[in-house]
Each structure stands twice: as structure tokens, then as C-alpha cells.
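ok so i was messing around last nite and threw this chain in just to see what happens. nothing serious, just curious
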Amino acid sequence: MSSTSEQNQEGNYFIGDHENVAEMARLLRQDSMLTEGMGGLLAEREPEIAAIHTLLDLACGPGDWVMQWAANDPHLQAWGVDISTLMIAYAQQTAQAAGLSNAHFLTMDVSKPLDFFADHSFDLINVRYLIGFLPAARWPALFTECKRLLRPAGTFRLTDMEVGASSTSLALERLTLWLLEALWKAGQSFAPDGLTGKLGITAVTPSLFRSAGYEYQGSMTHLIDFSSGTRYHQGFCDDCRVLFQLTQPFLLGAGVTTEEAFEQAYERMLLDMDRPDFRACRDFHTFWGKKPGGEERNR
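result:
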């Protein structure tokens, strides 16, 4: 059975207002937690950092990941693109205030061809949370477009979640399942149906790399603990509070819950997360593939 929106070919961020200030603040907190929780900017490929001179971050949000790269290496040229003019304006102003002349940001819809950039422009292309805004049917085209933009032996790196948060809160679990079902209905899931509690990313991503002509390099799973008393607990609570508040219209529009049921679950989630025995974690899966032709790059 296919989802009701499987043929949708445009980007469709599940938070309808991508110019939302609260969403920008959430993404800033989330980006910091995720980068640190994953062990750094490129933890799984750290020996290759020195070989990266140009990089592109797709759907960069407020641009923190790009600016960290730019600050670490003034000789590196780091680019970020996002559909939100608010996010890009913030990133540009922040980079300018920090004196990061090698951090560049553009407003761009990554569900469309990235014609601004020439072939063979980047050593590394990164994207996180692709499933949040790009329908599954559009992933192959983006993989192909990124291969065009990469230099020979360049790397395309993708990080996403499989099941969202796993926790001891029944209310949070219910909200997460509603979100996964709504994403499936929107065509933003690889799961066979909307009731599996998964997105299906780990099953299909390696084959997507291979089908697009990459040399698939492997994957790494990062399990970040958000339980009470941990370093990231408060950030996780803030993230969930804003995330589900902003996604309520998406869930209601998808018909996966009612306003009354949502409000009850949301309020219960807030109480649960504040308990000293609250336990939660998220699994982030990073995949990477290399564009063939490394011997050409070394000539």
C-alpha cells in the first residue's frame, strides 16, 4: 500500500511555518546537542577532515554546523542553504558578526536542482533530518544532484532518525507515533505503512547510495541519552515542547489524532519529562557514500 501523498514532488516541511522564530531557536539548540552528542562535526570520518576544503550543508537552518567548520579552518569554504529566509538571514548576520568570511549562506529549496553551484564544487555535502522535509520519492533525485556537485572522491553524508524518541513516557511515545504516521501519509517515510513506528530509513539508504552511483562507505549509529539528570535532558525537553506544539496542525491535518487527544498527550508529556525517573534516548543514523574517481582528484 502506498501513502496518500506519494506522488508529491515538492519539499514539505512538517512544521508549516518555516519562518517561525520559535522553530529557529529550537533548531539552534537541537543542532548543538546533535553535533556534540555525535562526537563532533565529522566524528566517524575524522581522519578525512584535513582533506576537506569546500563543503555544503543542505537545509542548514540557522547555520551553526557550517559556522563551526568555518571557525575551525579559516582556509575552508563552507556553504549552507535553506528554504527559510529567516534562518538564512540569521546565519548571514551571525557569521558576519563573528568575522567568518568563509561561511556563506543562500536561500534555496533543496527539493529542486541546485543550479547555483557548478559541477564538482564540494569535497563534502552534509544533510541532517532530510526525511523531515523531503518526500521519499524525491530522495533519488537529490542523491544524484549531490553526486553532480561533489568532486571525485567527495563524500555525501546523511544523518537521520529511524524511530524518533524512545522513552518511558507513554504520552511522548503516542505523540511520536502520530508524527511517524503523519509523515507516512505525507509521503515522507519509507515504511511499508504508517503504523510500524519506523521511518524505514535504515532499510533503504544504503541502496539509494548505490543506485545513484556512489561507493557506499557504511554507517554509524549514535544513541544519545536524554534522560533526567543527563547533560542533554533540558535541551531535549525544550525541543519536544516546541516541536510538538508546532507540529500540531500537521498532525491534525493528517487525521492521525484529534485536538482533544493531542492536548491531553501533550500536557501529559510535559509532566512526564519533568519526572526524576524519566528516561529517553534517540537513535541517529549517519550514512556516507563516496563519489567514484578519486584517482582523478589526485592528479
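not much to say yet. The first strand starts at residue 54 and ends at 58.
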